[in-house]
Specification:
alpha+beta, 2 domains, three-stranded antiparallel beta sheet, two-stranded antiparallel sheet, 8 helices, 7 strands, 12% strand, elongated
Amino acid sequence: MPNIELLNKVLKHIEDNPGTWDQRVWRCGTSYCFAGHAAVLSGWKPKGEETELYWRLNGFESEEKALEFYAEHVEREKSWFSDGDTSFWTNRLEKCTKLVPNTSDVVLKGDEQETIASVAIKELDLDEDTAGILFRADNSLNDLREMISEIKNKGRLEFDIWE
């Protein structure tokens, strides 16, 4: 049975603190999606600081390797486009050494480390389909309210209703 108390707590927190909610990302600095709020309000802590170096967030083992990778792709992109548009890779090259909001979806509790999604599913006691619908990036606050009402009434969400 879904954890109605936590569903209500997360929704109320988002309504009272709209600046901390961004449904499009698990985590972005101090903003979270519904699932991210469920994890944090259940005592899980985000891994890492609020900001992180761009190259680290993208899995590079060193700044030098990231700069080399992005520079190569800027050069390659120049040959792909007749107008010389290199904005896609140039943007990444320019951000490479800068601090950006931490978008890591990893949370910690004691010695445990898990993804926000897996923690939120467990803490909210949701089935996979309900979680998949509730955690969608394009859900508005009104969508979340309606979905939580449906979960309270039926215990779950169904794809045929929420497509």
